[in-house]
Each structure stands twice: as C-alpha cells, then as structure tokens.
Design goal:
Radius of gyration: 21 Å
Helix content: over 70%
Shape: globular
Strand content: under 5%
Largest sheet: none
Number of strands: 0
Length: about 425
C-alpha cells in the first residue's frame, strides 16, 4: 500500500471513529489515535504534526474561554435564572417558548458564534424545559440546528468563516451584502422545517405559565456581564480583523477568576466541569488535515476546481456548495473547512464560488449529528445532563430540515454575490 493510500485510510478510520464512537469511547480518542498513527507510521513528521496542531491555537483559546464562561454560568445559577425568565415570557404556550428559544439561538449564534450556542445556550434551554415541565427534545434541537443555520450572518458567527477567507476576509459591509440574504433564507427555512417536524409534540404539550424565579447573585450577574463583554469584544475584533481566540480566552478566564475571587471559591469545580476532551479532538483533526495535505490533496482539488470553473462558474458554485455540505457530514466541517480554505487560498476564486463553499461548510453539517464541531459540543452538553440523541434520530430530522435551507441559501448567495 502506498504512503498516500495509507494516510487516507488512517484519516478515514479516525473520522469514522469520531462519527460512530465505537465502544462508546470519546470522539477525541479516535481523532488523537489517527493523528498519532500518522506519526508512528512515518507518514507525517512530528514537526509537521506539531505545526498542524499549532494551527488550531486560536480555536483552542476560543473554546476554552467559552467553556469556562458556560461552566461558571451553570454553577452561579445564571442558566436557572434565564430559564425561569423564558418560561414567564412564554406564558404557558409551548409554541411561544419554541419561538423564543429560536430567537435567542439566532442572537447567540450571530454575536457569540455557533460554538457558544452549543456550549452556553444548550444548558440554559435544558434548564428552561425542566422548569416548564416540557419535553426537552423539541427545544434542544433548536440549539443544534440554529448554531449552523445562523453561523454566516457575521464573520465571527463561525470560526470556520475565518478559516475559509483568511487574509482575504471582506469588509463587514461587503460581508453583510453577500451573506445577509442567504442567512435570512437559511434561518427562516430552518425555523419552518423544525416547527413542522415538532408541531405535533408542541401541540399536545402543557407547560407551566410561571415558575419561581431564583435570586441571581453577584456571581451570576458578573458572569452575565462577562458573556456580554465577550460579544462586544468579538464584534470589535471582527471590525478590526483580529483573531478571536485570545480575547475570548482572556474574557472567560478573567471573569472566572474575578467571580471565584469575590466568592472565595475553589477553581476546581469549574475546571472539572469543563469538557476538556474537545481540545484534543480539535487538535487531532488539525493534524489529520495536515497529513492529507501532504498527499497533494489541495493541488488536486485546485486543479479540478479550475477545470470546472472554465466550463461553468454558476454550476460549479452550486455543485461545490452541495458537495462540501455533504463532505462535512462524512468528515466533520472543521477538516472540511480547513481543506476548503486551503483550496480557496491557492486560487483567486469568484465571490459566488467562495460564498457557496462557506455555506456548504457552515450549513451543510446540519444533516448529521457529527457534521460540525458545534453539534459535537451540543452532544457533549446533552450528555452532561444525562441525555443523548442517536445519530439515526438526528439524521432523520436533518434530512427534513437541511436540504430546503441549503438550496434557498445557495440561491440567495448566487443572486447577491454574482
């Protein structure tokens, strides 16, 4: 077997392990095992593996800051307070609570990123459904789907946006002109499809009109301020074209340190509550992509893309968006986004083509439960609450929700970027 074929085999087996989780081992185990195998078999020098993992530094910092804030918010009772507020605003209507959760999910995704929706909003929604006496599934799936459907409203809404555009990031006004219409299409279509699939469950459900609202202490208020500060910092970084990881980490770590210092609390409960396994998972995926890059994958894909563009740019944009969207569900959108970003960097591509690539990477993963890092983080948040969603159950829902949103978003993107 050639070295290239062996690299592809290891990457495929590692990706399959991340998706299927054989023996119920964490996703990170399979990603790191694949990365280690590339080095052990001499397919990737350790220095290149280290360089590949180092490419994810900004993502690691971003996720760490968000996970610290989420765990702190849970322990300080912020989620329980927000849950009681949501139930009060719903006024006994399951459909109103559904719409309210969806609207909040859009705002969190747009201004804090899709990973924040998975990490921060999911526990709050679970707390709200528990307080209202509602079945959690119809509301929790909103967190998974809107995390991707609203993730291209702003550059900061999804770290994958920064990977794909890199140094060629459009100005904010240009970005909004290109991606506001397809974002509106994706958000609207996803809401309609989710509502129709959950309509029967919502129609037969009675939820509490009001629940006792717990007192939000100083720690909870300061944590809420920290989350709001992160949103403001991310918007400022986007406007100034700065990386997001370090500012997010500093806000998360700083808020956590201040709250614990004021309460004289131990940091260990917060640190134990963070899902640290997400970080080696992301690092392993970065190393796997580095290994695939050494096989000449980027050069081959670039040549194929140039050939297709010479025939028809319009058909190429449509086909590329759909193919990348499907590929994200086979290999996760993080490595798919890294590959797409490398291909985009290798050639000066028309705006409709790059827009289609971005929509494929951001929205396509809604088809399967392991299509995006945000959805994996969502699964981790569910498991912390003793819940689980099977891959088959999510896939059936994804097949109903994703295709119309994808086609409408691609159509809108072509109209406004062409």
């Amino acid at each position: 077997m050639s070295t290239h074929a062996l690299t592809w085999l290891i990457a495929a087996l590692a990706t399959a392990g991340v998706i299927a989780r054989p023996f119920r081992l964490p996703e990170a185990v399979w990603a790191m095992a694949g990365a280690a195998a590339l080095v052990i078999f001499g397919l990737l020098p350790w220095s290149d593996a280290f360089a590949g993992a180092r490419r994810g530094t900004d993502v690691y910092l971003f996720l760490t800051g968000m996970m610290l804030l989420a765990e702190l918010a849970r322990q300080e009772g912020l989620f329980d307070w927000l849950a009681s507020l949501a139930v009060s605003l719903a006024r006994g209507s399951a459909r109103r609570l559904f719409a309210l959760v969806y609207a909040v999910g859009v705002l969190v995704t747009v201004f804090l990123s899709n990973d924040a929706t998975a990490v921060v909003l999911t526990p709050a929604v679970y707390a709200a459904t528990r307080a209202a006496g509602a079945a959690p599934f119809p509301y929790l799936v909103i967190c998974a789907f809107i995390a991707n459907a609203a993730s291209f409203v702003l550059p900061i809404s999804n770290p994958a946006n920064l990977v794909i555009f890199g140094a060629r990031m459009p100005e904010l006004a240009t970005w909004l002109a290109w991606f506001a219409p397809p974002s509106i299409a994706a958000i609207g279509a996803t809401y309609i499809a989710l509502y129709l699939t959950q309509k029967s469950a919502l129609a037969g459900e009675t939820i509490a009109r009001d629940v006792p609202r717990p007192r939000l202490g100083a720690g909870g208020k300061l944590t809420a301020f920290g989350i709001a500060l992160v949103a403001a910092v991310l918007l400022a970084c986007s406007a100034l074209d700065l990386q997001l990881g370090l500012p997010t980490f500093l806000c998360g770590a700083g808020t956590t340190s201040i709250v614990l210092a004021l309460s004289r609390g131990s940091p260990w409960p917060v640190l134990r509550g963070v899902s640290w396994s997400v970080l080696p998972l992301v690092a392993g995926l970065f190393v796997l992509v580095e290994g695939l890059d050494r096989t000449g994958l980027i050069s081959v894909l670039s040549q194929m893309l140039r050939t297709a563009l010479a025939t028809s740019a319009t058909e190429t944009a449509w086909g590329l968006g759909i193919v990348i969207g499907l590929a994200c569900n086979l290999m996760n959108n993080l490595p798919a986004g890294l590959i797409a970003g490398s291909v985009a960097a290798a050639d000066h591509l028309p705006a409709p083509v790059v827009g289609a690539m971005l929509i494929g990477v951001d929205l396509g993963p809604n088809l399967s439960v392991t299509g995006s890092l945000a959805t994996i983080l969502w699964l981790v948040a569910l498991r912390r609450e003793g819940l689980d969603v099977t891959a088959w159950r999510f896939l059936k829902l994804g097949c109903a929700v994703t295709p119309p949103a994808m086609l409408l978003a691609l159509g809108a993107s072509f109209l406004f970027t062409g």
